[in-house]
Amino acid sequence: MSPNRRNFPSVCEGVMPTDARSRRLRPKFCHSQNRAFTIVEVAIAVIVLAMALTTGITAMQRAFFEFDTARNLQVAGNILQTEMEKERLLPWAKASDPAYLPVIDTSFNRNPAIAGRFTLSRSLTTLPSRSGQMVQIKLTIRWRSLDGHELSRSYTTYFTQGGLYEYFYNKS
Prior knowledge:
3 strands; 17% strand; 40% helix; alpha+beta; single chain; three-stranded antiparallel sheet
């Protein structure tokens, strides 16, 4: 004991009864002040804390993957919409040409995060029930997500010789 503690009584000395029957009435703060956590209690606390941190980090990682997917879906939709508008402006000879390959617009390729990540393809189907005057154009864009999964989105449209109104009003 330090010299200073010898001169001063404990908080509970003299105030509390010392017989066994009245010890039950003692307040909790008068118990031994030298108590500490056991190694088992510390180990359990560390395990609980580690599990909480691991769960939080895993959830954040999954959220980043989902943010990346949402961002790429938005970019893919913009690329498809831009190319679809270009397709609608093509003359019949070029729109009905199966050899025509679309190219991602240069405004998208300027961004290094987009350039080279997306691939655009086009498939053309001539509809025989429309006397060869109507084609189905399907644009598909593909990319890989951060976790390695291949994703794709497609837009489909129809193109008629002479335009849409020509087809509806002058059916042959």
